[in-house]
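Standup notes
- DV: blocked on the single-chain target, sequence here:
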Amino acid sequence: MNQPATSSSQMTQSDDPLSQLTESACAVDGERFADAVVAADTRLRRLLGRLTGQSADLDDLLQETYLNAWKGIATFRCESSMTTWLTRIAVNVARNWLRRRRPQGSLTLD
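- DV (later): unblocked, structure below
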């Protein structure tokens, strides 16, 4: 008999590529990291867009998020999902970007 198709909302955690990464005892190599990037891209793009007001720098911020994640992959402790970890990195990247754009106090020439 044919099994009914499973909708995306019924997807189990083990069907989610990011969950599979987390379940693989944190043995994240380049290929697995690339899979995580593909799986999280839309979610992180939306998040960064909301946090920065749909900045023209969105692609750069996303790239910085992935670069920071790759540099820190050894620090991923499997205490949370890969999605949570990438989201936290994206929030930190957005915060830093907003701080850099904040106007500095003006100096007066007396």
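- Follow-up: The helical segments are 17-23, 30-52, 58-71, 82-101.
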